[in-house]
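INTERNAL AUDIT FORM
Audit reference: QA-55
Scope: verify that the stored structure record matches its stored sequence.
Auditor: D.O.
Record contents follow.
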Amino acid sequence: MVKDEPADFGTEKRYDDAGIPMVNGDEADINPTLLRREGFASEAEYRAYLATLGADVPPPSEDYVEVLFPVSEDHMLEARLRELREELENLRARLHVIREQATTVVAENVRWADASAHAQLGDQPWLKLAGAMAAAFVVARGIRRLPLGSVATTALPLVAAALNRKLARA
């Protein structure tokens, strides 16, 4: 475009794939009697219009379809194989998303457990928890080594006497 020429935006000619000029984006060779810009006056007019549109189209038949699209068993198998491959790819994509979500959930649970431990035990909660577990282990080992049979035999009459005195007071 030159400086002194007027700009003609929207007035350029368009051509379809065959090189035929198009008017307003429509094909130039459309039969104007088949174009319908407003509604129909009656149901009969509507049916007549549909009949004119479909007059050129032969009724479909099974032979016609089979002649146009002969499908061999190999093509059917290839098509089915292609469908199965697409479905497999979709399933792989879903599985990938599920794995990503599971990873996120596990990471969030670890963060939550760490934050909870810090909130309850302060600094170095895992060290404190490990110390408590070690202390419980040592105490349990010490209790196992005690001769509880003889201690229970000695303590049982004392506990029974204390209970009798308590019941006698009441």
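Auditor finding: record pair retrieved intact. The two ends are 116 Å apart (CA to CA).
Action required: none
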